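Aim 2 progress update. The chain analyzed this quarter is reproduced below.
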Amino acid sequence: MTLVRHEAPLALASLSDQALRVRAVEAASTYDAEGLVQVTLAYLLAASRKGARGSARTRAAYALAVRDFVPWARDSGVQLLRPGRRDGGRYVAHLQTRPSRGRGRSGGLSAATVAQYVAGARALYRALRWAGATEAQPFEDAHVPPDPTPGIVKNPPYLREIDDVLAHCDPRLAALLLLCAHGGLRAGEALGLRLGDLQGGMVTVRGKGGKLRRVPLGRRTRTALAGLAPVRPDGALFDWSYAQAAYRLRRAFRQAGHGHTWRGFHAARKHSGTRLYRATRDFTRVGLFLGHSSVDTTRRYVAVDDHDVAGEVEDF
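Predicted structure tokens:
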């Protein structure tokens, strides 16, 4: 039974230095995972680089990671406030050898999942240092080997599936799919659109970290959106959560005979990036369209044809 009072992250961030330290030390000393989740979220909201403008999905992923790391630390004899210098590496090795616990999945955790869990554990220790509970950095020398298989290979863009699936979507679901597959929007960006965001052939998008960008919409997407009435008084065009929208699209993929190819919304965004790159051959323009801050990120969204430069090297 824990003595730690769980408080909202922003309430924790408003405590005095001494009170915050007491909360963090108590939570770490009792291996109170939920208390440490709150400390981590308080740090992310009040002291991280992006602050409250950071992604809600990132915060949720870090919370999941803390809930995984803390019980492992307790069962492995790790003192959270005074970890050994090799404990970070031990946790990485545990993740790399642990079987997946996902429903219907077999084998080990993917490299991306391992990296996400370690990122969350690192965030926990940044939060503990911010709270004044410890100066320990057990993950300073812990390395997560990158996935040798590129993401564009593991999760390639949808190609011909898009048109097939659209035939099995109601008008609102079709508009959502087109916003992602033709407009290049993230699922969260598309689901958050309001009628006032549409101006002529452009849409104003609220992206990661609160960044705004203006995105041109193709004729087909404009037509799909023109037929939609807002679903709420604030002009919202969609009232689905991410999970509800994914459920509807997964069903449409099955009805179109592509149930085995459903790979989430990100593959639709890659469809957009790949088509635009093939038309422009310019990663910079594609990156601006997708809202990337780095062209290196954009390259992971574009499926380049095998032997793409065959014609150029023919007469070398």
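Residues 9-143 form one domain. The chain has 16 helices and three strands. These observations will guide the mutagenesis experiments scheduled for the next reporting period.
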